[in-house]
Amino acid sequence: MWRATLAAFAGTLLTCATAPLVTAQPPEYQEYVSLGDSWSAGATLNPALLNAEFVPLGCLQRTQNFARQVAEALNVPTFRDAACAGATTEDMTVDQPLGKDQYPSYNEPQFDRLTPDTDLVTILIGGNDVGLAATVRTCITPNPALSPCVSRFVVNGVDQMTQRIEAAEPKIAATIRGIAERSPNARIVMLNYLDGVAVGDPCYPIIPISPTDVNWLAEKLSQLNTMLAAVARQTGVEFANTYAGSVGHDACRAPGVRWVEGLIPVTADPPGPALPFHPNQLGVDHQASTVLATLGG
Predict the structure, then answer these.
(1) SS3 121
(2) Cα–Cα 20 to 30 A to 48, which of 10, 111, 168, 269?
(3) What are the two backbone dihedrals, phi and then psi, of residue 188, each rounded to the nearest 5 degrees?
(4) What residues does each domain of the chain span?
């Protein structure tokens, strides 16, 4: 009996001695900074979901926006989120006033969060530079035969929104260069915008925008995303194409299917107030999974 016990004990010691040691892997990224506008902030009107850890409440930053999910998934030790509703490329280097809502304040220049040690940056910007988000609200009409946006922006065959998108391209490129100058060792990932309205598939009067203007808005969003992809190529940064996987989840879809909310400022995902024509939590989760897939995580 004792011989058997000793033999078993010796076998255990041998197994322990030859088994490889399991050590915790250090995080791949040490310092992650998120930059951008309301779609980067995961902007929400639900007070229970607002987070003011890194920015004022007026930035409407969501507690579980895509950047926070990415930081948690990658176990990044140092994380800062500068993204703020209403931000433009100008707000990367100047204070952004936030005095037009119930949370008056200002967001410090977003680039102030970058350091030479920053090794991961995500950015989603451009929609406010061209004014596309604000334009959506001006397309609303009580008469589906009217197309106030096309009538306003397409004059003598010249599309002024297309001109705005073209004019914003060098600003986006300069923003990317500004990141690289401040954080030369950073891996930079640029995002694009989710599918908000579908070409040829209006849902008037649920979203009271005429079929003509819906198609025009979808075309302008496509042009904006194409421009962002071009900037990513020109500047040599990575591109997280969140739009590609979002087709079929636009604001006309049913709750639980749509990833972008429509005109009515409430959402079922999760239940509560919503920011019109912005991603709900399902859309935010898609942004996170797309960024992680881009990073290979």
Answers:
(1) strand
(2) 111
(3) -105, 130
(4) 27-295
Residue 73 exposed, middle or buried by CB count within 10 Å (0-12, 13-18, 19+): middle
CATH 3.40.50.2000 fits 27-295, yes or no: no
Active site residue 38: yes
Name the catalytic one among 40, 183, 246, 278: 278
Q: Does residue 65 contact residue 42 with C-beta atoms inside 8 Å? A: yes
Q: What's the pLDDT score for residue 100?
A: 60
The single residue of 38, 40, 246, 289 carrying the catalytic annotation is 38
C-alpha 188/C-alpha 134 separation (Å) is 27
Q: Mind listing the pLDDT tens digit for each residue in 172-229?
A: 999 999 999 999 999 999 999 999 998 887 899 989 999 999 999 999 999 999 999 9
Alpha carbon 295 to chain centroid distance? 15
Task: Give the C-alpha separation, 75 to 147, whole Å.
Answer: 48
| C-alpha 271 chain-centroid distance | 21
Active site residue 278: yes
Its pTM surpasses 0.70: yes
User: Does the CA dihedral 134-66-61-180 come out positive or negative?
Assistant: negative
Which pLDDT belongs to residue 126? 98
Q: Which residues pair with 106 in a beta bridge?
A: 97
CA 255 to chain centre: 20
